Amino acid sequence: MRFIYYFSMRLTCLSFIILFFIYCATGIAGQIDADTMHTEMQPSRHVAFDEIVVTATRTQLPLWRSPVPVTAITGVDLERRGGITLGDALERSEPVTLRRYGAGAALTTLSVRGVAADQTVVLLNGIPINSPQNGLVDLSTISLSGIERIEIARGGASSLYGNHAMGGVINIITRSAGYDRPVVDILAGGGSFGLRRINVQSRINTSSFDLSFGLGRDQSDGDFRFVDTFNNDEQSIRENADYVQSFATLDGYVHIDHETTLRFFARYSQKDLGTPGSLSFPTPGSRQEDEHLHTAVSVSRVIGEDVLVTFRPFMIYSDLLYSSPAFDISSRSVTRQFGATFDVNTQLTSDLLMTFGGEISDAKIDADELADDVERVNTVAYLSGEWSAPEVGNIRTTLFPSLRYDRFSNNRAERDRRLYEELTWKIGMTVQPFAYDRFLVRGSMGRNFKAPGLNDMYWVDEWSAGNPELVPERSIGYDAGIRWEIPFIDGLMLDAGFFSIRAKDRIIWVPDPETWIWSPVNLRKVHADGFEFDVRWRPHSYPVRLSASYTYQDVRQFVTDETTGEKTSSQLLYVPYHLFSGEIGYDMAGLRLSVYPRYNSKRYTTEANDDHVDGYFLFDIRSDYTVNLGTMSAIVSLDVKNVFNADYQVIQHYPMPGRHFEVNVRLRY
């Protein structure tokens, strides 16, 4: 009851604020559409051949002018890459580190710039979906069905998105309006290790609304062969790695009137999988069942010619169950999170765009390993802007300041309330120093944080205990670089730069020397330094595509020996020094051929850096051919993964499959 009361009161207050803004300016509502308002109010700032992104600044901005590196993955890119989940898509040609605990539907997380997986925020239409329990997002539970684009913004962004945004932001944007006729899309396929797959999508639209929905099912026996290092390097078969997962998606877009639009989405996933464990500690009979639901409604209204107000209530639900009969373990965790956000975007002058807003969310967790009545309330207010300074000669400078206040209340019990308050900031800048306007110098600096997860604070079992006295991890991040569209090579763009992150109060679980009870403490500093280089070549006159991303990242934690006072440093676990991914593509006459090379250098598995997992080079090939049959088209695709049959592990003792394939047939009407 207390949860309902707190949430109802905060939601009511937020609603009154939104209604107040709308009421004050309704009389001067202009004649422009809410979904095109940003673009029309800044006509001089948008170039036709620039991709428009929203993640870097929370407002629409040409990717070319972003103060931080941004990778935009369109729906066409996703279709060309294949796969069924977000993990499948990001595995190919992206500047991120994926950590896969096995093949198929196994846990898949990511990190940006070498930071931990819980220090990268994942958004769904701008709403954070990181678990309040452990800060992670399992990418294998997010279906590609209905996704319009994905934006990856590198660099800390807590001043825009708050908790977890220390290394970067992944924003998943689902489908909106824009189709000129109904569409039905049916995909069926199969492949190695008993893979069976079916996916159905449909879109219906009229002049006033657009509706799309999808259903999918993916399953595999997962019985691939691998080299068993614990059994004299003999060939073994991975057992208990089967899975079945289902997806359902719904996206809607309604024009209420000329100034008001309503969007809604719901995404449901369920998977049942075997969890074979590591080769060093196998769990042949263990199973896991995951269930996730993300849903939200967004109401946007244009006020006058220069103001857009958006209000988004949302709900997130997850239910995770793990059972291991051999060890007499059954563990369940249920998370319910409700909240609402509002944003006000206003063009104050021709050179100044301002955005401000707020958020409130309430997460409640019932977990077997957590203390009773674990609950977290987060209240937010933020302000950001974009200011184009007066030109000096041919030099054009734009500033992107942002400021945010977060207040966390961990209401485990009224007598045991723990408060955190964080004020974060960031200043980004772009400079175009020459008359040729396709060369840009970019840079940013800001303060970021990650609050302790509720596991860290309230975990309770026989051998470990949480620590309610933890403080947030905090960092200062810097990056700078150049972006250049080379004039004498059609369609070639380069982006290169360096980054530096200085973090403190990193949370580490350590044992008590007397009781050997493990507990988390704020113990260490982490320094991340690196260099990034991206190249994209998509000429207008040739049917070829080329992209490549290389990252060097030296991410070190600093440890002080409590006895001797000696200070040492070591590379963080599972962070490769070198990370490369690329795509080479050819499109012509209905045929698309894509090659995806990628490389990860060795990764250390111990804090002393005296053991490691070998680096690996992978090479995938995917092709599809489209046959048009009047109003219907048929697309046949072949995907061969790990072409050179590399023997590799992403996480130590979790083997990955060798060469395998997948064939799909898609019918589209």
Describe this structure in words.
- The protein is 7% helix and 56% strand.
- It has a single domain, classed as Maltoporin, Chain A (Beta Barrel), CATH 2.40.170.20.
- By secondary structure, it is mainly beta.
- It has six helices and 38 strands.
- It is globular.
- The strands form seven sheets. The chain has a 22-stranded antiparallel beta barrel.
Using the CA coordinates, give the radius of gyration.
25 Å
Number of strands: 38
Low-confidence stretches: 1-49
**CATH architectural arrangement:** Beta Barrel
List the helices and strands and how they pair.
Elements: H1 2-25, H2 37-40, E1 52-53, E2 61-62, E3 70-74, H3 75-81, H4 86-90, E4 97-100, E5 108-111, E6 120-124, E7 127-128, E8 147-154, H5 158-161, E9 168-174, E10 183-191, E11 195-205, E12 209-220, E13 225-228, E14 234-237, E15 243-255, E16 260-274, E17 277-278, E18 281-282, E19 287-303, E20 307-324, E21 329-349, E22 352-367, E23 374-388, E24 396-411, E25 417-432, E26 439-450, H6 454-458, E27 473-485, E28 492-511, E29 518-537, E30 544-560, E31 567-571, E32 578-588, E33 591-600, E34 603-604, E35 612-613, E36 616-629, E37 632-641, E38 660-668
Parallel strand pairs: 6-9
Antiparallel strand pairs: 1-2, 3-8, 4-5, 6-7, 8-9, 10-11, 10-38, 11-12, 12-15, 13-14, 15-16, 16-19, 17-18, 19-20, 20-21, 21-22, 22-23, 23-24, 24-25, 25-26, 26-27, 27-28, 28-29, 29-30, 30-31, 30-32, 32-33, 33-36, 34-35, 36-37, 37-38
